[in-house]
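Troubleshooting entry. The earlier prediction with zinc ion gave an output that would not parse, so I re-checked the input for stray whitespace and re-submitted. Clean input:
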Amino acid sequence: MGRPQLTVIGLDAATFDVIDPMIEAGELPNLKRIFDEGSRGVLHSTIHPLTTQAWTTMVTGVNAGRHGMWDFSDRDESGYRLKLVNGSYRRAPAIWELLTHANRRVGIVNVPFTWPAQPVNGFLLAGIDAASREAGMTYPTDLLRELRERFDLERLEFDHAFPLNEQGRCDVELVRKACDQRVEAVRWLTERFEPELLFVVFMSADHIHHLCWPEWENEGLESRVADVYRILDEATGAIRELAGDGDVMVVSDHGGGRLNGIVNLNAWLAEEGFLEYATGQRKVRPGEVGRRALYWVLEQRRRLPAGFRYRLKQRFPRLRERAHELKEYTVIDWPRTKAFAYGIFGNVVINVRGREAHGSVDPGDEYERVRDEIATRALELRDPHTGEQVIKAAHRREDLFDGPHIGKVPDLLLEFRDYAWLGKGNLVAQTPTIWDKIAAAPDSEEEYRGSHRPEGIVALAGPSAANGVTLDAGIEDVAPTVMYLMNEPIPEEFEGRVLVEAIDPDRLDARPPEYGEAADVVLQAERSYSEDEGGEVESRLRSLGYIE
Ligand SMILES: [Zn+2]
């Protein structure tokens, strides 16, 4: 069998803060071997270090102003309603599109934001944004059916949601099952398609951080966090075996760590006088309780057997429309609001006249003044327990991003200290204080206990790798390094650099990086989720705490 020239193993959220103590304790032999044979170091993520933007920057080599992928949801034309995004919203070519164009074979598995699975020269299994478990799940389309038959699986396991069992508790066995299954599938696919680039992502480290980070701090090697890293290390070993004597890269899109707390940024903006709630502040709006209850019913409805769901629909024909009304529902009085937040990582939008549907701030001087004032006040926010600063920096979008899609980036980015805090933009409910929380899942006892960190990991081993170098990389350096290792020209549009210090000097001498114009790749057309697809993804993302 033809082995991949390069295998990229993506471990979402993997951090040396867990890996190194485990290696010191004699564990994680497969990751250790890769690190020992080659080079390793920190991979600095995007601001914010959130899966959507981070992976997309990694695989396109350009910033969010160019690729247009920011958060799990995006604002619609009104500027206020959120719609879920998926891989078809990406506006810059990914490395597998460039390689397909160059007639190279690729195998892409579970990279976030690759739904609907697009045609490539090889195969592609969609990632966390995958909606229906049928349509858009794989390329070639028939692959899903074949995979099911081949492995005699009633259903394929995906690590697209938290590993919660039927009792709503975190269950490491579910992680093992999903990882084993992925490795088996990848083994079969690799033998059949012989990809020259194999890129496989595992999401489990991210999930276990969010659910169990304090367990790692208290119980270390005995924790379920350590258990999940052991499973990921085994999977890494198995994929490495498939890679044969080709090059192997290990990457994560960001790190993970403790979560100190969550700020409801809209409640904070209201306190600071930038946002008005539709009815008196801090009062539960009449009907709100009923609305939340209906919301819960609609959520549960998705878990019912199809026949029962059908009867429910007959009995309450307007249920669906009510669901839609709920999405439109907001607690914010837009015309009297100067700025608002959305998402959970600190996205502040100025309500600009002529841009947002009910804008109240004039573009130009007033816009700049409001944005500066919010930035200044944000830096004054203190942890109520320790008195420490909660927000470390406030970035104007144009200071960090550029490109035709910079409009997708919010006006002001609040960077929380170490990202140990999150800044939620709660649009559908008021909270009694600015200090908020995120439930792990509506009916689970688990809570959101861990967060992301800007420091991910990167490592390179194999015939092209230098030995024993400590790397200090940016996430935008991955794409040019992949193109170099595949012996392809590096598009001049790429914003990062080839990680030359990770490469064997003899190889570099023999084959210095070549640059060229990006291939003229035709991007996929934007495809919104249908109502059913959207509902399913929405439930999953809500249960991951990423959307309200
Ligand atoms: Zn991630």
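This one parsed fine. The pocket of zinc ion is lined by residues 12-13, 51, 206, 253-254 (CB under 6 Å).
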